[in-house]
Structures are given as structure tokens and as C-alpha cells.
């Protein structure tokens, strides 16, 4: 606790200085000496200051509010987003922040109608955006209360409302000013409910009807007729057909159309536009539409002259004639062809037809060969993002072509391109110095390659998992020259030890996420150095048996924003580590404790972390059903808990029911107890054997 | 009529007899009993309907007179040819035409003679039918088509056409299409004549079907035939059936000979049937568009079409819907179709209009500004799982306008959560039933029925309570 206090102190001093500075600049008349200085400060200026403070450390605002009554009031007026941890806090939170315009309930798994109604009425009606996408338990009545008491409601996210149906949609329709609405996964929604929304919310700009299986052409047609201002429409996995496709395409302002997995859309539908064209459409997603072929795609491309983004993943084989029709959309920036099959020089045609491409995804495509890919990338000089994940046939030839022609690449993803040699991987660093995102997972990368990558000073995300050849020396280069690194994945890099990690921790202060799973040589000293990375929020040290509670406690104290922690199979971590976590890591949302030496005591102490949502507690020798039950009862925010199957019968059923009633889902794991961790090279060999088979 | 023709074509005389001999149950009684059964199924008395079928001396005499008349006409034509023989210079073509006319007339005479004689000798007649299907065809169809001069007192249409036919001018016209006067075509002439004339006058509105002249055969059933309930009759007991297959099933009861697979099988269509012309039908109601005399005549395609058309257009609507008691139908099937949907206008609009079909409702909503689909009053399982509202909302077809300012949740939210929940529960139901919110103030009387509890009672053990207390 002492550490926390000192932490607050540290933050408070510079802030005071800044406030004083702002005060001296303010044009207000000379402040009365008796009046608190904040009273004379214009709200706008104060808010600018608070914005900066929040940007530096979100928790600092809390300490600011505690400083004085005026500070408290100022902070109340400043906050615009309210994200309560528990539903029962909702009325209080809204009363505390009357100026809030956005209510984010994504941390509340269960929001009963009553809570929604009472909270919203007691609070202000200034709310403009409400997010209920992760919440369940409310119905038409709750939606009705929300719509009635928030006249300014413009953004409503009701995704995943699997229980909601037409009645709730009719209530949504009473929020006349809605501009953005998501009804994704309303499986019981029919045309009637959609018709109500279409008539009621004529101002709609963005609408998602993803997975609304009950909606048919009739409803969509009415929507297209009534909501002419729509700019973005998501109809993924609905049963729409040609009948409603035509009116949608005729919407005058439609910019973004998502039709993932629409099996009713076929070549006839795509061809039905004929001479008509949608000049406004910029983004078209046809991925996983199984019933369209290259003929239909060619047909629709004639009707969308201003398209910027096209997604045809898992859709149809790519033929040269189809690619040539891409010439009709000269502005195309992004082309996604994940999981497609290239037929007869289709890839080459991309090189000749889509010269303006900025982003190309060929992930998991079949039929990508060296000659074709080399030809294509040699023409695509402007490419910024390239994804060739799992193109297993490409070799050094392709990589040489990519690095020599696409020198301005910002993102390169080439996981599992296993035929590319370590020598060729050095070319990446030599030629593509603008890279910000690089995925070389499961490649032949070695120390020399990493040394070359040191030239990429803007690198922010580096994924080099399962690269068994890399060493501490290589990482040292990265640590020295990539200060902007935020995310590094070193999963199963068996050759690494503490030295490399320490270099990274010292050189990359912006680090937010690090994965060290199964780097078996790692010890507490790595964690001690990582604890200096104050922004770290994700730490995965699964299967690092040499790590103890000492290292974890340093992390808990240093990385106060830690929200995801995986310490599975860190056998030496015990209750002490948990006690530190419970003291300092109040941001923790997700934790995996399997195989640790934690007992009931440690587990119970964790329950003081009020926002904990996700726990995995399997194969812990020191855990008893009673301890688990007690913990679960206390943690009010849990949404998902993984427990061993044996616990199911040992825990009182009514307790399980009670926890489930709060919105928590239990997953009962039935895996054998397995302590030993294979060496990385053995594991890689095994996984490759599986792949070959 | 179609059926009877089929039988003529497809079945032996004996078969034919069994099929239709409902009144005269014994075979071989004589020719005069051969034909009446044809008409009896249709409920008309044989003597008046198709008189020539009967062996009666008067008819025979009539036929012979007609033949005499015909011979005289032919003679006249030949005379004129002889007379004009001097002026050879004139028209070779005209002479050729006249020859054709004579040829056709003679053919006609021969056929008529054969059939007249055939009516005297049943065996001879039937065999002649089989040898010349067209001849039999003519006999059967003659009361429809105008070709047969054998029908002196048949219906008016035939009369007219017969006279038409007798005039050489018409023959000229006809023979443009047919150069060779085979028996078959010579007899078809009359049938097609009507159609061709109609086609000439009318525009092309023919139900999209435009059969060239001569490619179809036009038939016209009489009113009685159309309205007859049964078309197949048991030759032994006289019971009527709508379907031939039902009759065959029925016949099993009359003896083992009807149980053989051959007797039970569907009678095969013989080879001649394949070369048959497409059949089209005319409605007997004069001035109907489906009547062949109408200017824009549109033929009916099947017997069933004829029956449904005649009932729908020219008969009284005797079936009344038992649900709405207003809609009337003359075809039973139409009534049944209607009754399936009658009174189930479950698709409601906010304006109170109801529709039987969803697409009709959506078309309505699309058309009128501000109208919105309205959900039916009973919407099961829409509210959250913890709010139990077993109550039936009386009528909420009208979409509630506004919650009203008296919708006060916050009033009690501070002090009592349980009360709050209850309050909300009540409000929820109130809201759906569009009752007044003004009266709602955490106290609704026991009259509100849906809770079954007085206002003071609290809902114990609501899941949310657990949550909130936790």
C-alpha cells in the first residue's frame, strides 16, 4: 500500500505544477486568494489538462478527484465515458458523472431490465452512446426505458442479444435519432422488428444485422427504402438474395457493404445490377460467399467504380479474367484474397491490373508460386501491407522480389513460410526499413536476420515465435534500435535467456505485450527488468519453470496496467505472488493459474481484484472446492471460468447456479495432468510431423 | 367429349361399350344401344342431344337427303366447269380450284356414305373406325366441329358452319392451305375453319400460345357435359366416377376378370394417339372470350380449364365462406383455398389495417409515410427472463406513443432495489398494454391481475436480487 501511495505522490506533483502553469496563463481576473484555484480556471482549459493527465496514466484522474471538492467536481464534469464494473454500480456511476455521453457496459455480463431503467432515469439524459454488446439479461422493457429516457441517443450497440427479438426492436425504433445501431446475433429478429427499426430510425447511418437469421428480403427492401442515409450496412450471414441486393446497391450514400457468408448471394444477384452502378460504395466484403464465382465477381466490379477495398476471402477461385476486371476500379487500395485458389496466372494478373494496391492479403492461398508472386510484387511498388501467411511454396526468390520492389512496406506477415532461408530473411531488414509490423513466426530467422532488422527503427510489433535459431545477441540489436516496440512474441524461442529479455526491457519502454511462453531459460531477473515497462498490460510466461513469486511481485508492483497474465506451468509461483497481484494489479482482467503452487489463500486474495473477468484454474494441487466457491462468490465481474471437471461435482450446485446467474460461464476442462514441458526443438518437430500428415 | 374420343381411338368397341353402357347393361343388343351411353354420362337425353347416333329411319333419311343435296352441288360445280370450258382463255387456276373443290366434296360424300352405312352394321362400323381414325373422329367430334353434314339438327354453330362449308367460296379459301385432299384433312377442314376465321379477325392475344392453323383441334363441350359431376360410369351398376382409375378400382368388385393386371392397368395410348392433334377447347357460352366465335378468341387448354372457367364465369357462386360469410365461390377448390387464409390477417400495420400476407403489409408500409409494422398483441418471451409476465396484454395493437413523464424509476431507486425491480416489472406490463402511466406509481391495484399479488407484495427471489446483494 505504501508503494501505491508513493506512486500517487509521484503523479500528483507534476500535475500540480501543470495546473499552476495553466492558472497563470488563464485570462480570468486575478484569482481571489481565498478561493480554490480551480474555481477560476476555465473548464475548457482544465479539461485540456486533464486530457493530458489521463493520457499519461488513466489512474491519475482518480487521485486528482480525491484532492479536493473542486477537483472532484471538475473530474465529474470532465469524464465523458462511463464504464462501470458491475451493474449495481451503474446508478451511482451515472450520478457521479452527469456529463457522460457514452455508457459502456461491456464489463457487466448481466444487466437486468430494472437496473437499466433505474440507472438511466436517475442519471442524465445526456447519453448519446450506449454499449450493451457484452451484456445479457435485459429485454424489450429495458430497451424501452433506455430509448425513452435518452432522447439524444445516437449510438446503440445491442450486439449478441440472442434473446432479443421483434418486441425489443420495436422499442429500439423509438429512438428516432439513432445513427449507429448494431443488432448482430438477434437470431429471433424477423422482418417485423426490422421493419419497425427501418421506419422509426430514419437517420440511421450505420447498421449491423450480422447473424440475424430471421431477417429476409422483405425487411431489407423496406430498410433500403426508408433509410436512405445509410452509409454502412453489415448483412453478414443473413439469408438475403438477389431481391434485396439490388435495392441495397441503389442506396445513394452506401459506402461500406459487408456480406460475409451470404449464401443467398450468387452470380445472378451480382450480375443483376447490369447497367446500374453504385458510385458511393467504397468497401465491399464478399468473403465466404460460397455461391459466387469469378463470373459474378467480374460482373459486380463493373458496377462499383469507386471501390477502395475489396475482400474476396474464401469466396471463389481467382482467375485471370476476374482479376483483369479489377482494372475497372482504378482506386482500389486493399485486396484481400485469403484462402483463395489461384488459377492460371491469376496472381500475375494482379500485378498488371491493380497497380495502385496498398494492401494485399494472400494468406493461406493455394497456388501461390515463386514466379507468379515475384512478377506480381515487382509491379506493386506502392504496397504498404503484404500478408503471405502459410504460402508454403514460396522460397528465397519471392522474398528477394518482395524486398527489392516493395521497399515502403509497413507490414509484412509471413508466418510459416518455412522454405525461406535465414539468408533471405536478412533482406527484409536491409531493404524494408519502414516496417512497423513484422510476423516471422515459425521461420528460419537467426541472429544475423535480427541484426539486419535493427534498421527498422519504427518496428512496433514483432512476432518471431518458434524461431529456434535466434539468440540473446540478436535480441540485443532489437532492444537497442527499436524503441517503439510495443508487442513482441517470443513464444518457444528456446535459445533465449535473461540477457536478451533484459535488453528488450531496457530498450523498449513502450512495451505493452510480451509473450515468453516456453522460453524455459527465463528467470526472475527478466521479469524484474520488464517491471520497468510501465505500460505492459499483457504478460505470457507459460511454461517458464524457473520463474518464482519474486519476479511476479516485481511485475505486479511495476506494471500497474497489467490486465492479462498467463502463468500456467510456472510451478514455483505461489500465494506470495497472488498477494502482490491482489495488492497492486487492480487492472487485471484475465489470469491463467493452472499448475501453479497457489492455494486457496492466494486464490481468495485474488478475489479482491474487482474487475477480474476470466480465470483458468486447472490442476492446482492446493486448491479446494471450497476455496474456489468462495472466490467465485466474491468476484462479481466474472464472465468465464475454466475449472477441472472434477470440481463440478464437488462444488455446491446452487452456488454454481448463482454464479451463472450473474452472467458467468463455466467451462469444465477434462485434460490429463501433465507436468513435463518438451524442449522447443522436439515440440517443433512434432508439430511439423502433424502438419505433414 | 374428350374422354369419349379417347375411347374411340384407344379402345375396342367392346371396351367402349362397357365403359359407357350404364343404362343398357347388355352387350350386343343392337346398334341403337351402342351410342346413347355416350351422352348419358353428361346427363342429356340421348334422343335430343346427338340424334344421328340413333338408328332411326328419320335420321337416316335426313342423312341421305343431305348426301343427295351434296351430290347435286357437286354436279352444279362440274356443270359450271363444262360451261366455262368454252372460255378456256380465262382462268386455269380457277379450274384447278374447282377440281379440288369437287375432289373434296366427293371425299366428303364417300365418308358420309360409309358412316351412314356403318351405323347399320356395328361390326363393320367399328372396324372402319379403326382403319380410318379420322372417320371415327369426325363422327365423334361432329357436334363440335362443323365439318359433318351428318348432323342436320345439331346446334347452331354447326348449322352455320355447315352452310359455310357448303359454299364453294369457303372451300377456295380453305384449300389454299391444303393442296391434297386426303380423307383426314378433308375432314379436319371444318374444325380448323372456325379457328382460322377467328384468328383472322382477332389480334394475337392468345395466352402466349400461337398454334398455327391446322395444328390443333378445337372442341366444344355442352353446358350439361361441363357441369356433370361424373365422367366415368360403371357399366354394371351405373355408379359414376370422376376418375378413370377410380372406376377401374371399383370394377374389381364386379368379378375376377376385372382384377387382372391388364384390366387394372392404365389403358395405354396407342400409336395413333401420338399423331393426334393438340386439343383446344371452346366455351359454349356465346359472347364469352373463350367462345370460338369471339373476336379475340382464346381457347382453353384442358377439360379442367373448361370446367373451372365455365363455373367461375357463367355459373352462380353457390359456395359461401363459412368464416367471413361474404366471399362466395363457384368452384369448391377456390373456397377451400380462401378458407385456409380467411380471418387470419395476422400482419398488422400501426394504422390498424391488417393483412393476410407479410409482403402485402410491407408494401403498405413502404407506400405510406410513418406507418410501421405493428407486432401482434401477444408477444411471447420477449421480456427478460427475470421478469415474469404471465398476464395477457389486452390489446396493444396500437403502438404506444410515449412513456409519459410519470414513468418514474429514479423515485425509489435510491432506497430499495427490490421495490425497484417490482416497480419495473409492473411498468413493463403496463407499458405493453398501453395503460396509463399516470396511475403507475409503484402501486397498482390487485385489479391488475397479472401479478396476482397486491401492490405491497414483493417479488422474492429474483435472480437480480442475488446479484445486487452480492
Automatic annotation (TrEMBL), chain A:
F-box/LRR-repeat protein 15-like leucin rich repeat domain ranges (all copies): 184-301, 354-504
Gene Ontology cellular-component annotations: SCF ubiquitin ligase complex
Alphabetized Pfam families for the sequence: DUF7885 (PF25372), LRR_6 (PF13516)
GO process annotations (BP): SCF-dependent proteasomal ubiquitin-dependent protein catabolic process
Domain of life according to the entry: Eukaryota
Name assigned to this protein: F-box/LRR-repeat protein 15-like leucin rich repeat domain-containing protein
Naturally occurring in which organism (per UniProt): Miscanthus lutarioriparius
From TrEMBL, chain B:
Domain (C2H2-type): residue spans on this chain: 232-259
Keyword tags: Metal-binding, Nucleus, Repeat, Transcription, Transcription regulation, Zinc, Zinc-finger
Residue stretches of biased makeup (Polar residues): 383-399
Signal sequence extent: none
One GO term of the biological process aspect: response to aluminum ion
Gene Ontology molecular function: any one: zinc ion binding
Alphabetized Gene3D superfamilies for the sequence: Classic Zinc Finger (3.30.160.60)
Pfam families, per database record: zf-C2H2_STOP2_3rd, zf-C2H2_STOP2_C
Region (Disordered): 376-399
InterPro entries tied to this protein: STOP1/2, zf-C2H2_STOP1/2_C, Znf-C2H2_STOP1/2_3rd, Znf_C2H2_sf, Znf_C2H2_type
Cell location: Nucleus
The organism's place on the tree of life at top rank: Eukaryota
Protein name: C2H2-type domain-containing protein
Organism per entry: Miscanthus lutarioriparius
